[in-house]
Amino acid sequence: MRELVDEVGRLRGRATRAECEHEKPPHANRELARYAAPVRLLVYDRTCVHDRGRLSTVWSAGSRLYRMLGRIDASRGVESWDEAFEWLASHDEPIREIQYWGHGKWGRALVREDSFDADSLAGHHRDAIAAVRERLAPDALVWFRTCETFGAHAGHDFAQRLADTLGARVAGHTYIIAFHQSGLHGLAPGMRPDWSPEEGLASGTAADPKRALWSKRTAPRTVTALTGKIPPAWFTS
Fold it and tell me: Residue 24: which H helix or E strand, with range?
């Protein structure tokens, strides 16, 4: 009889715990996740399979290598910025770092033809960006490993407005990038770019850029595709 009473007590306790867990508000897991270790996430353009250098295969393989080396915690290939922002905002844990691998032009980061730029910060991407901002950890980093995105006046404008909008450090390149990735600059919120808007230009002007230079080992602020961290001194703060 004593064993039966004990078993009933255990079952009642289990049922009570299950009821309590079932009654947790929907935001309970996210509230608990605020205390979890921040994560490092990588997004890449998965649309470049048959054209544009067929680089999606390279980016996919690179993301797996970065995961194996412990440089990121998760990655996702996307076909639009809406898909990218939705995936980023879906994480319960704080986000310590976001890298984007894809194509770019001056002041823009591209998923196929879908442009993320200064205008979209207050435009159709505004709500999605706000959702991502809520997930960012203190001193988070958003790094665009894309061609030319921080070059020319358009790149300066995008870098400054993005850092201020996110309240986070941002980084990007002024050159065409491949294995060598030149013209890497970082910017903290509330600061102005301190690199030349003409850096990385092969033709045109900072106001009207036409063609960018290819990265090379001897160009300013050069890292490689295997570089996982940005030197702190490369940030304007």
Answer: none
Domain match, 73 and 4 both: no
CA distance 74 to 151: 29
Q: What is the CATH number of the domain that holds 185?
A: 3.40.50
Whether the model pTM is above 0.90: no
> pLDDT (tens digit, 9 = 90+) per residue, 148-178?
999 999 999 999 999 999 999 999 999 999 9
Angle at which helix 81-89 crosses helix 126-135, to 10 degrees, equals 30
By C-alpha distance, which of 119, 45, 31 is closest to 77? Answer: 45
What residues have CB less than 8 Å from 230, skipping those under 6 apart? 141, 143, 171, 184, 186, 223
Torsion (CA) 116, 122, 127, 130 in degrees, nearest 10: 80
Contact 141, 40 (CB under 8 A): no
Domain of residue 12 covers 1-33
Q: Which residues on adjacent β-strands are paired with residue 103?
A: 110
The total number of structural domains in the chain stands at 2
Residues 164 and 193: beta-carbon distance below 8 Å: no
Regarding whether 102 and 25 lie in a shared domain, the answer is no
CA 232 to chain centre: 18
Q: Are residues 197 and 105 both part of a single domain?
A: yes
